[in-house]
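WARN retry 2 of 3 for item q-0093 after timeout on previous attempt; input resubmitted unchanged.
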Amino acid sequence: MSARDDFDRVEQLLRSSPAPAAVPSGLVDVAREAALGGVERRTVVMATRRPRVPRLRLVRLSAWVAVMAAAAAAALVIGVGGRASPFDAQTTLALAGPAGASASVDFGSVDQGTRPMRVKIHDLRPAPVGSYYEMWFQVSGEKVSAVTFNTGSAGSATVITAISADMRWGACWVTLEKVGASDGGRVVLRST
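OK item q-0093 returned
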């Protein structure tokens, strides 16, 4: 018999036994005394306070300045806060859907084999729970996924991504996909 079999047998016995009765109050006191070793064996240790060593305000100020400088540098690098350089759109594609839903796809200049792409979605309801939106391109007769996204409560979103600079596509559309399902959801936006 393996250890796992023993555990399974013990678990079956525990599950088949009735719920334990209430613990008698006298037994609780006996158990507490046994665990703590009785009153006469308890030892109280008083901790002495060490004198506080004053910290230098300069060290705190230096750490604060270093953290703020790192945060500012990171914000500049990733374009958070302030005015980042504008997206330099070379080509724009429009998509339209039912109930006034629309999108624009801006393609930037080629840089090291990639082309930046900014997708702005308007008036497209957020995907239901367990679903998401996916943008597709038709490339040489094949459908190629470009980006997945969801919209906010106002029905809008902006997604910045990149595609291969040498991608030549014929059509663009957005589908509503279910998580875990095969691709091929309902088309909600089409290039015009």
